Structures are given as structure tokens and as C-alpha cells.
């Protein structure tokens, strides 16, 4: 069981937004298999990523908050990597490089703005982030071990696995992280009814995960859902709700199926999204990390943090 817990920054932690949708729809960058990590392999791609992440360093500086930089490696695992021509060796290299890349940006942020930073390695699901996968936790542990190990070797402060659809995969990734001694955060996604794509209520998923791993996840988040879709799954007074430390929300109220088919980006109503994200965060006793997911960019995250901090619902 890990003893690492998210540092209790007095103003919370800013993280980024919907990297892939921002690059595809706002910058016209082709991302085969919706993978951003190949951008690390050329100078032009690194410049694009640098500009993207620097926007969020400014949000953190303006908010007086901590900065959680998370690697663009949501697809940098074996099955997805193979589709893009990356073998195990190449994936290990690019996952290392991703941590080093953000560590340099974190150092730049500290020099220019001071404050605290964390660099996290991002893990994505083995399958489609909107479809429930199989239920073999041990198989998931074996599958995700290589990426978790690469982040640990590269010196990441933690890893976060995003957009999980089943408890089984969450259990597997936690076991892999425990094997290499790297703190891990787990983020489930939910449908419009607040349940995981396999139908499991969010609260049951949190409790099942903790029971199976000895509360081995450092903390939990919910991502890739509009605040109105997360809300039906929340019982703010339930003990399990205290395990949720972060929200990374979608701009759109569309279902996952509708988003999968969308050819035009639904950016939502920026002010409304910020207000609803704040309200949801204020209901949850442990939320400290706030950022965006599909359809959001630095404007959305800046609006969420403007004059507000997710610590105890205080307004600055």
C-alpha cells in the first residue's frame, strides 16, 4: 500500500485540458489513433506541446496554485503504440522522454513563477476509453507494467491512469504501480447517468477498487464527462467521496457515443462549464486537482480557476 498522498497545496493544483481535441480541432494537427505522444519525436511537435503546456503554467501562476504537468502519453502503451509503429523499446524511450520534457518545463515554471510543481506520467486504457474492457485484473497489471516502470525510471512524481471504464483495469494498473513503487492516481469516466460504461455506479467502483488494492491508489479522479454527467454518481456525504481528489471535465454534454462520431468540436458554454465545475468541486471534500478533458483548452481551465480555488470551496 502506497503512503504517498497528493501534497495539500493551499490553493489546489492546476492541470491541463483536452490536449488531443485542442490539437486536432484548434491547430489542425493530425493525430493518428488520437495519439499525441509521437509529437515528442520531432522538434516541431515539441514546440507545439511546449506552447500548449505553457498556457497552463500561466493559469497556475495567476491562481497561485500548484502545477500538475501530465505527460502526453495517454496512447503510449503496447497495443496503441504498435498501430503507430512503436515497439516496446521505442515506447520505453518515448515515455522516458515525456517525463524529461515536462520536468524541464516544471523547472522553467519554478524559475519564472516559483511555486510547487509535480510531473505525472499519463496512462490510458488498453482499449477504447468509451467501451468497457475485459475483467482480468492480472492481465491488465502485466499489460500496463512497462509504461508504469518507464515513468518510475524517468523520475516521475506519480502516474495517473485516465478514462478507465472498469474496476478490473483500475485494479491491474494499481498492482503494476505497486510493483515498481510509483504513486498512482486512478480516474474513472462515467456516462450521462454517473455510472461507469460497464454500468457500475461510481461509488461502488471506488469502494471495489480500494477493497481489492488496500486503498493502493494515491487518490481518484473523474474525467471525460461533463459535470452534469458526473453529478448523478456523486454522494458527497458518503465516505468514498473523500477519495476523489480531482475533476477533469468535458466541455460538451454529448454522450460518449455522440462525441465519438462528432466532426465538429463542441466547446460548450465556457462560463457555464466553469460554474458547474466549481459547484461540483465545492461539494466534494477532497477535490484539489481541477482541469479539463475533451473539448476544453486553456481558456476553459483559466475560467475555472479565475478567482476561485477548489480547497474547501473557498473564494479568494
TrEMBL record:
This is Homocysteine S-methyltransferase. It comes from Nocardioides exalbidus. The keyword RNA-binding does not apply. Residues 1-308 form the Hcy-binding domain. Zn(2+) binds at residues 224, 293-294. Keywords: Metal-binding, Methyltransferase, Transferase, Zinc. Its cofactor is Zn(2+). It holds the Pfam family S-methyl_trans. One of its GO terms (biological process) is methylation. InterPro entries: HCY_dom, HCY_dom_sf. It comes from the Bacteria. One of its GO terms (molecular function) is metal ion binding.
